Amino acid sequence: MELNTNSPEEARIETLEKLVDELMKEVPEESLIKSYMEQSGLQYSKDPIGRINIVLKALHFEEPSESQ
Question: How many structural domains is the chain composed of?
Answer without folding.
Answer: 1
